[in-house]
Specification:
Low-confidence stretches: none
Radius of gyration: 18 Å
Distance between the termini: 43 Å
Helix content: over 70%
Number of helices: 6
Oligomer: single chain
Number of strands: 0
């Protein structure tokens, strides 16, 4: 990679920088929990689905749809909880495609940033 390309890569979009700041605030607020380094895949996926469910619930247009989404996500969490690797060692042993997992997790973060940024822009325009 050229020096110019590396320098360009280091410049964050304002929305990404804003979102990264929000992420760090929340992470620091939860430092007392001891970090995520020892968390197993099944736990992290369950927490991810819990947070996704909360976001979807906030964006539901009617209370009835919110109830339906919450019920569906409860079922999804139960099903996924039985299917996800219980340890990183097991995932590694079965040939986890780490670069692909990192790309997909980045996609999840990017979609979350877009939702948060659009919400922020609505607040800023009021």
């Amino acid at each position: 990679m050229s020096i110019a390309a590396e320098q360009e890569k280091k410049v964050l979009r304002p929305s990404v920088e804003w979102f990264a700041d929000r992420m760090e605030i929340v992470l620091k607020r939860n430092d007392y929990k001891g970090g995520w380094e020892g968390c197993q895949p099944d736990f992290l996926v369950d927490k991810l689905l819990e947070e996704v469910s909360e976001v979807i619930g906030l964006l539901c247009v009617t209370p009835e749809k919110k109830v339906a989404i919450n019920a569906m996500m409860t079922g999804v969490r139960a099903m996924v909880g039985q299917s996800v690797y219980k340890s990183w060692g097991a995932a590694e042993h079965r040939g986890l495609n780490k670069p692909y997992l990192i790309n997909e997790a980045t996609d999840v973060a990017n979609m979350s940033m877009m939702i948060a940024d659009n919400a922020k822009n609505l607040i800023d325009s009021v």
